[in-house]
Design goal:
The chain contains five helices and twelve strands. It has 238 residues and is α/β, with parallel strands linked by helices. It folds into two domains: 90 residues, Beta Barrel (Elongation Factor Tu (Ef-tu), domain 3); 124 residues, Nucleotide-binding domain of ferredoxin-NADP reductase (FNR) module (Rossmann fold, 3-Layer(aba) Sandwich). It binds flavin-adenine dinucleotide.
Amino acid sequence: MKIEAEIQSTRKETHDVKTLELVPERKIDFVPGQYCLVSMDVDDGSKGRKPFTFASPPTRDHVELTIKRMGDFTEALHNLKKGDRLILDGPRGNSLNFDESVDKDVVFLAGGSGITPFISAIRYAIDKDLSNTMTLIFSNRTKKDIIYREELKGIDRKENMDVINTLTDSWPEDWDEETGLIDGDMLKKYVEHLGKKLWYICGPPPMIDSLEKILMEEKIPEENIRYEKWMIPGKGTE
Ligand SMILES: Cc1cc2nc3c(=O)[nH]c(=O)nc-3n(C[C@H](O)[C@H](O)[C@H](O)COP(=O)(O)OP(=O)(O)OC[C@H]3O[C@@H](n4cnc5c(N)ncnc54)[C@H](O)[C@@H]3O)c2cc1C
């Protein structure tokens, strides 16, 4: 379903990530984890559409998209201003869906902008006061790449939520969180009863492939693993 939405505000998240806060012309009935195809051409919604995940939860009136600048399309989205309009074609996708029907405790493994489906789920769980425990392991290259840094600190202080950051390329001397790629030891350090959790993974394809392998080695049942590979733009999502 195509819905027009107007930009109400924009927010700089990091040096190359921006959040657009949009007011849709009518409510979009999505589940955390879903995405839409975004187009800037109001006359012909089929031109230049790219997938972006709802970063806000469906419990709120506005819709947020958090966008990492990668190429021409995302550059153009970053240049949009308050009052500009987008067409959102969705909701789409079901691999990362999370709502109150999920009765398991969950672990989110995110790489970079792959956090967007999970921040929607976490915000939703907070808005709805859900009792699932949630562990987010968030991998970034450097500290300045961490999106939602302050919000995540607040989430980590919640009783049923844990946020673990790992930096893979470089880190400041006083960095006291994890470093290096997510591996089996890191998972076991922060997650008890691995096989009982529901695992969600989102990020670039190489990250998904290696994490899937690690989860298999840890004997996590396949039906407890959900992932979405953010393939090269425009491919595999139409
Ligand atoms: C289901 C789904 C949901 C998504 N949700 C979000 C979201 O919430 N926020 C967000 O920032 N992005 C999201 N993406 C990725 C986003 O769609 C792309 O980054 C965007 O299409 C890039 O378009 P562009 O024209 O700016 O860059 P392009 O010019 O198309 O790409 C620039 C360069 O970056 C590389 N590249 C771009 N994206 C990726 C990627 N995902 N993996 C590996 N290499 C890549 C390309 O190979 C190219 O070299 C999502 C992708 C999918 C499939």
